[in-house]
Amino acid sequence: MRTRFTKAISRYVRVAPFPHMTTLSMAGLSLLCGAEAGLASESGNKIIALIFWTLSALFAWGILLCQADALSRFREFKRVRATLRRYGFKPRILHPVSSSRCQRDAALLAACETGFRAQAHRYFREMGYRWYHILPDRIVANPLYFFHPSFLRSTFLPRRTSME
Question: Least enclosed by CB within 10 Å: which of 21, 126, 142, 164?
Fold first, then answer.
């Protein structure tokens, strides 16, 4: 029998599978770079050691960003789930969270838990999204938009949307 804690962790991972997979990948790369830095340092090659320590730190920073994204998706999941429970299935609830795979995953889990998974899946499919549409729409249109403040704000600070 699963405990409440185990269920909560499982749900947290299922809400944002891509950020969690990326976290694991970056953790492995950070450890690998740290080990290489240690070996280079022991052999007296300080420049190579510095490069690998820097890479290790950058990958560690990436871990923090991925987990911030996962936390934002979890907050979004809870908001969408509460909205679906309150108002039932309405496409305008899912429209604000349709532009990226991570947001769609969170919305689909919220719809699944409220009994609207088939309608949500159909809605995203009718919008043209498939399993391989991973990058956010804005990033596909303009890759430099990744550094725009509004993209960073919408990624890491999801806002409330009204039903009006």
Answer: 164
> Structural domain boundaries of the chain?
4-156
pTM of the model: 0.81
Instruction: Report how far apart, in Å, the C-alpha atoms of 17 and of each of 47, 59, 102, 129, 135 are.
Output: 36, 18, 8, 17, 14
Structure tokens belonging to residue 146: 């990744």
Alpha-carbon distance of 77 to 16, in angstroms, equals 9
- Phi, psi at 123, each rounded to 5°: -60, -50
- Rounded to the nearest 5°, which phi and psi values hold at 10? -60, -45
Count CB atoms within 10 A of the CB of residue 60.
16
Least Cα distance to 80 among 102, 54, 52 occurs for 102
Which whole-number Å values give the CA distances from 64 to 19, 33, 132, in the listed order? 10, 17, 25
Query: What letter does residue 161 receive in the DSSP assignment?
Result: -
Tokens of 156: 């890491």
pLDDT digits (tens, 9 = 90+) for 98-155: 888 999 999 999 999 999 999 999 999 999 988 888 888 888 888 887 788 877 777 7
